Amino acid sequence: GAIVSAACLAHDLGNPPFGHSGEKAISTYFSEGKGLSLKDRLLPMEWEDLTHFEGNANAFRLLTHQFEGRRKGGFVMTYSTLASIVKYPYSSQLAGKKSKFGFFITEEKDYQQIADELGIKRLSEKNTPLKFARHPLVYLVEAADDICYQMMDIEDAYKLKLLTPREAHELYMLFLTPKQKERVEKVFSFVSDGNEQIAYLRATIIGILIKEC
Description:
Structural class: mainly alpha
Helix content: 55-70%
Number of helices: 10
Largest sheet: none
Shape: elongated
Low-confidence stretches: none
Distance between the termini: 14 Å
């Protein structure tokens, strides 16, 4: 549980501003913008890293990088925690159109060491781009991520007035059984503030989905 909690908190640390749009902006800067001038100075794999910039790989870099003035090993996290952060355990050469991969060339040896130590199965042949099976805890981290952003997106849309209170209620209610809906209505009989109601629904459903997982 502690490993999954730490991985959930850390796995998005490498995301640029504006999330996936930020990733695309960085990639496009190198593939189509002024960054093109650097192409001849970089190895093909380094160029793949930049033109498929990936926040998850950048998180792994930040967490393992030795910053100036800091002790060796970066944040000194356990191998299990670091492996639980990497959703796409393969190199940028295998990123494809979705631009998903788990580590830059600069951290490839680090991930290989972690995989060897933990017994994570290598799926690629020798002398081909690295690809590993996922660490089992990645599935729990990803489930937590999916639950949170889907539930928070509804609340955020309500706060931004993209959804009316009624629309937000209706979306959340889809996740509840008739018995659970009765309990919610009972709570709403004495909690009348709209923001409090939405927050209660969001927290309740996150709890239900965690239990389902």
